[in-house]
Amino acid sequence: MSYHRSVPGIPPSTAMFLLLAAFWGTSFVAIEIGLHVVPALSFAAIRYTVAGAIILAWAAYSTDRWRPRTREEWFAASVAGVFVIAVYHGALYLGELRVSGSVAAIVISLSPILTAAFASRILSGPSIDLVQGVGLLFGFAGVAVVAAPGGGATSLVGVALVFLAAASFALGSVLARPLATDLPIETMEAWAMLLGSLVLWVGAGARGESLVGIEWTTTALVSLAYLTLVSGCGGFLLYFELLDRIGATELNLIGYLEPVVAALASWLLLGRVVDASAVVGFAAIFVGFALVKREAIGAFASDTAAAVRSF
């Protein structure tokens, strides 16, 4: 895949950003569809076992390091595997047994706010100030609106599980920051997927899930293939390419386009319309992010305006 060609008139980074939002936004609906056939944790485990094997093969082909060698590298891959792959997707899939994909996408959009909160407590960074504290309250209020009766969710337990998924992703992102190693990102991602899928298989066994007797319908196979190849392999490769091109602050904004994509996909594929209260909750979460990351967003906006003027 070439990342240097794009739609005429659209910068490559913008086209990649929109493509990644489409990949990850539609994944919430694809998960919801597949869960009608495949048990939740087994579904997630299959996805990341296959995706991890594919990424590992790519890492072996494209890099000079196909596996971790030091204890620190294995630990870094394990942290990502447990928090970003296993707990995040396990809780998300279990949550989507009870809430729609579009609602799950709204709750997951809280992740950047939680990341800032965890970073202020765990890392030696600046503490949360008053404005950022208000932003956190907006974010939590948004989730509360979504979870309230008439807010779009059908289960408080489902919202709680998806919130756990968002918190796990945020915590894993923060814990991984001090664990930077020389391991190529493709190799790191492959082993995180494989180790995370192993944890998911253990969880599936503990829940008594079984793949025996599953009727693999065409819809279920298409859902699994899409999640594994497009949202999984393709999505993560795009993510790390964009992380290098535009940085984490702008890339965090993708979490606020995903619910829009998920809502459109849910309407087109399942005929579901997002409740107005859920939209209000999403707006509150977005305001919270803007308050928490106001300085970084302001700096990015200034740099972007300067680049436009010079162009």
UniProtKB/TrEMBL annotation:
Domain annotation EamA: ranges: 16-146, 157-292
TM helices/strands, residue ranges: 40-61, 73-93, 99-118, 130-150, 156-176, 188-206, 218-239, 251-270, 276-292
Subcellular location: Membrane
Main location: membrane
Pfam family, one: EamA
A single Gene Ontology CC term: membrane
SUPFAM superfamilies: Multidrug resistance efflux transporter EmrE (SSF103481)
Topology relative to the membrane: Multi-pass membrane protein
Keywords, alphabetical: Membrane, Transmembrane, Transmembrane helix
Record-given protein name: DMT family transporter
The organism's taxonomic lineage, starting at the top: Archaea, Methanobacteriati, Methanobacteriota, Stenosarchaea group, Halobacteria
